[in-house]
Task: structure prediction
Amino acid sequence: MKKTLIAAASAIFGLLLLIVIYSNIEDILAPFVGAPLLILIPYFLITIIMHGFHTWRWSLVLESMGHKIDFKKLYSLRIMGYSINYITPTARIGGEPVKAAILREDNVSLAEGISSIIIDKSFEVLAGAVLGLIGIIIVGLAFALPNDTIYYLVILSIASIIALAIVLMRAIRKGSLFLNLFRMLGLHKIKKLKDVEKQLEKTSENIRNFFMGDTKAFQKAVYISMAMWGLMFVEYWLLLLMLGFYASIFQIFIIISFVGLAYFIPVPAAIGVLEAGQVSAFTILRLNPNLGIATAFIIRAKDLLITFIGLTLLSIKGVRVKKFFD
Result:
């Protein structure tokens, strides 16, 4: 019930924001007039390929643990998890337990499944934090934001990166931060939670083994992540080209940063937040804010299509989406 109320409240907030942003619909639709819509074909194709790269990186992690899972199944799991992440106010983590649970069908233990997801997510989150910091510095230098604002934003970003680095280093050298916290709180003394402690121990060991024991897999995962960022820049370049705007790498960088930030805010489907973020990004770049809303519209259409496919796959699997709001 509590989850339902939180989701409803955040969704209402997003909808109100969305209504305000889309109030002048004629100006918003203007960028689509005469737009070469055929560009949507390579745009969606790159999106499909990028999900494939995400799946490839995840499969490498699982293979390092001794599990070779069918690529098609992993790709489907990736889409299922994405769809749950999209509709729940959980900042991109709501669908991960489902992925770990379904992996048990292929004799992947829950600890291994969770470990593989944590490792895969660590590449995504850490890279996003670093690039976000670079984006803040570039924006501050290029557009002369107030010194106090730049100072606090940079400090916040550095703190986030340090926190993530600490989590990874503790996971690699001393064990999982969550395991240490579990023990520090004395929860390991509770008999009913002994199994939880064992799962945390196994998860910690799996993460440590990947980062310290499988150098080749780690290097491949880094290269895949780099390739994915390259594809993402091409994806957004095509999107903006369709709207008649020839974007520079710098401009694309800022736009991507604001999209990423929007999806980390715990509002289902980033309703309203995505649009507000793009208006802010295009305003900072001294471009037409309506172009930002048009960009957000296409991104949302793409994400809704992927979410529909993911929810359909979950339905076929017999997983009830309603329970994530109970």
